What does this fold into?
Amino acid sequence: MSSAIQNVALAGATGNLGPAVLNALLDAKFNVTVLTRQGSKSSVPESVKAVAVDYESIESLEKALQGQDALISTLPIMSQKALVDAAIKAGVKRYIPSEFGTDVLHPRTIDLPVFMPKVQVTQYLEQVAKEGRITYTRVVSGIFLDWCLQMGLFLNWRERKIELVDGGDRPMTATMLPSIGQAVVSVLQHPDETKNRAVYTQTAIVTQNKLLGIFQKVSPGADVEVTHAKSEDFEKVGRAEMEKENPNMFLGPFNLIKRAMYGEGFGAVAPQDKLDNKLLGIHEFSEKDLEKTMAEIVKS
It folds into this structure.
């Protein structure tokens, strides 16, 4: 299996992460083909080849993946087994699954039902990789720093409110979306060093209280309403919802994801001795970088 990767297919070029990955691939001069869902009205740049596929059909996916060296998925939570099987049939060399964010194989995270589809594809990739049928790389980025700040997930800066979870001092690894795109590019440029393993990225380690302090520094005089919550309650609500015959597929998963983000011992901080920032070319933020990012988001 040759290590050279030039032709890259991207499943999920829209959404939160997809555009950052697409832009990084294009900037690095890869030949990119975007897979789009049949009937989708989502658009991609005119310079990018787009192929409509049926994500439930291995035959449709295999046809679209002919001649591709790598396949990247940034699709939301869904079964990726058809993508893996189609990639194998088409002779794709490297698969990067849609597992950006939490390390789904962490001993406590793996037990949360919201991550089961990702756990299943990870275990399947490990199996087929051992058989020599394909290689893979998991990009474990922690939370999406810029996106979470923009959405007010840690701190609702628009309404000047914050719900501190477990006191607000739980450290979390966070990575900027463009840096995740850079990590994907670097994985493809270093296929041997990143073969069949997880790579860990980190722009910064943050806490809610740290982000609150930065917000108050860049917004002098801002009065923030503070409430408190327990991460264990998120898990109770999430599990109860997921056990219903017709669960709310936002309420259940969202609460379980928050448990993984804020709960003690869920691997929210990347193992610092395994960080791949240097290999992947990821810039780690200083305090001033965080302040600048927060200020830009608040002013936008």
The mean pLDDT is 95. The radius of gyration is 20 Å. The CA atoms of residues 33 and 48 lie 6 Å apart.
